[in-house]
Amino acid sequence: MSTTDAVIRPRPVPDPRLRLFVLHHAGGSHVPYRAWAGHLPPEWELCLLEAPGRGTRRGAPARTADELAGVFLEDVRPWTDRPYAVFGHSMGAIAAYELTLALRDHGLPLPCWLGLSAVRAPEHHPRRDGRRFDLPDAELRTAVLEMGGTPREVLEEPGLWAYLEPILRADLQLAETWQPRAAVPLPVPLSVFSGDADKGALPHLMETWAAHSSRFVGAHVLEGGHFYLQPDPSALIHRIVTDIRGNSVPGGEPSPVEGTL
Length: 261
What we know:
By secondary structure, the protein is an alpha/beta fold. The chain contains eight helices and seven strands; from the N terminus they run H-E-E-E-H-E-H-E-H-H-H-E-H-E-H. The model is unreliable at about 250-260 (pLDDT under 50).
C-alpha cells in the first residue's frame, strides 16, 4: 500500500481549503469516523488514517507510540501541501500528539490546529501496575466491555474476537506503556476534549495540556463517557470546526479574522 493510498478520503474534495486528519481509538478503525464527512464544511476534506494490522492495512499492529507515529508520518507527508488539521481520540490522541512532534522534528509543515480527545496530558498519563493488555482472555473481554465502544456481540462471537484480540492487546500496550518525552511546547493551536462522565480524563487533568502548546485554545467538556463522540459526533465536530476557524490560518499563524478557513 502506497502512502497516498493509506489515506482514506470518504468524500474527496478536488481542491480542499483544509484537510482534517482523524486518528482512531484503540481497538478501533477508521470506519466509525467516515460519517464525519457529512458534518464538515463542503470545502474541507476528511482524511482518515488506519493503524497497521486492521482492514486492508497489512503488517503487525504497532506496539509503541513512536512506531505508530512513524507510520502516520509517512502517510501524512504527501498531503501537507495545503492547510491541514489533526484530531485524535484516545489512542489516536497519543498518536496525533507524537505525530505532530515528529513532523516538527523532520522540518515538515505543521498542522494549523491539533485536537486531542480523552487522553490526559503527558505528566498525568496513568502508570498502571496491572496492564490490561496482559489480562487473560475472559478478563480482557470484561475490561473492553467496561471501556465501551465495542459491541458485546463482537466480544462474544469467536471469529470476530479472534480477529480483534491481537489488535486490542497491541493497541492497549501502546496506550498503557506510552512514555512521553520532554518536548518544547508546540507552536500549534491546541484544543482538548473529554466527556463529562469520563473519569480517566477529568477536566482539571485535560487542562494541563496547556503547557504543551504556546497557543492553547482550551479544554472542552461534552456530555458522555470515554466514547462521548458515539453515536452522534455532531456536537464535537461543531466545536472542532469553530476552533479551527477561530484559531488558525495556513502555516499555523494567528488568524486575524475568524472564519478564514
